[in-house]
Specification:
Blueprint: H1 2-18, H2 22-52, E1 58-62, E2 65-68, H3 69-100, H4 107-123, H5 128-134, H6 139-156, H7 164-173, H8 184-214
Antiparallel strand pairs: 1-2
Amino acid sequence: MAKGSVKKSTQKTSVLTTQKSPEENKSFFKKVTSNKVILILGILIIIAIIYLKKDLFIVATVNGQPISRLSVINELEGQAGKQVLDQLVTKSLILQEAKKQNVNISQKDIDSEIEKVKKELEKNGQSLDQLMQFQNLTKEKLNEQIKIQLIIDRILGKNITVTDKEVNDYLEKNKDVLDKNKSQDELKVGIKDQIKQQKLSDEFKAWVTQLQTKAKINYYVKF
């Protein structure tokens, strides 16, 4: 009988010790309420962001039916994904090779080349802005393209030569279709540059193929 009394008393004491004081209960409920408020505010902020930046998820609606940005991306990937990916891989290889060979292209170099392009276009009654608009180019994208071109020219151009014989042969073969308003000297300058660019293009294809063969390229998507 005495043992039973001791057991009951122990259980009662255990229960009493787990009960919280009014102050502790008040602090506990305040903490729970605060957490709920934070959660609700977080949800409201997310909803607001989705509404204000809905163009990040939806690009159009047709009679109320949304077209998601993801569906556009998937469509573009299906149509030109491999081509775009190959271009990005090639650009990465070129930039890596430029770093290996310590080829540095400054903004001054890029601006100087852009000025040359502007002058050449103006001679033909065109403008750089028109060209950029036609090709849907931003200033940043143009700078990037010019930089890549200058890197290629620095690395491969030094090994390319154009002889007077090549220029004269081209001039003779194409004299009927060349601009009659230009002098022989002007034509020769243009022809020399054209032949050089063709040789550079052929050299570039072989060079990129070599870089791709040596590089470790892993593809994680299939087109």
